[in-house]
Design a protein that fits this description.
single chain, mainly alpha
């Protein structure tokens, strides 16, 4: 994640950034597949304590297309292609 601004609330997320993908994968560890976008958002909201970056991750996930995801790889591809 990049923070080009001094305001910590204004974080620009580059989804191709490896640490962002790793953070998302770590936060989603344990999620059951298949899962839709609503299920992913709910999982993140219920597991915010797993990551100090959960709000930024939630913003990235909200930009994903409505879809049913079968694997973590599907989620990663959706993030890379749509954010």
């Amino acid at each position: 994640m990049r923070n080009d601004s001094k305001d910590k609330g204004n974080v620009e997320v580059d989804a191709t950034d490896v640490p962002v993908i790793a953070s998302i994968a770590n936060l989603l560890a344990g999620i059951e597949f298949p899962v839709d976008k609503k299920g992913i958002i709910g999982y993140v909201e219920n597991n915010k304590e797993k990551s100090s970056e959960s709000e930024q991750i939630l913003n990235v996930i909200k930009q994903m297309p409505e879809n049913h995801y079968q694997t973590m790889s599907d989620i990663t591809k959706a993030i890379e292609n749509n954010v």
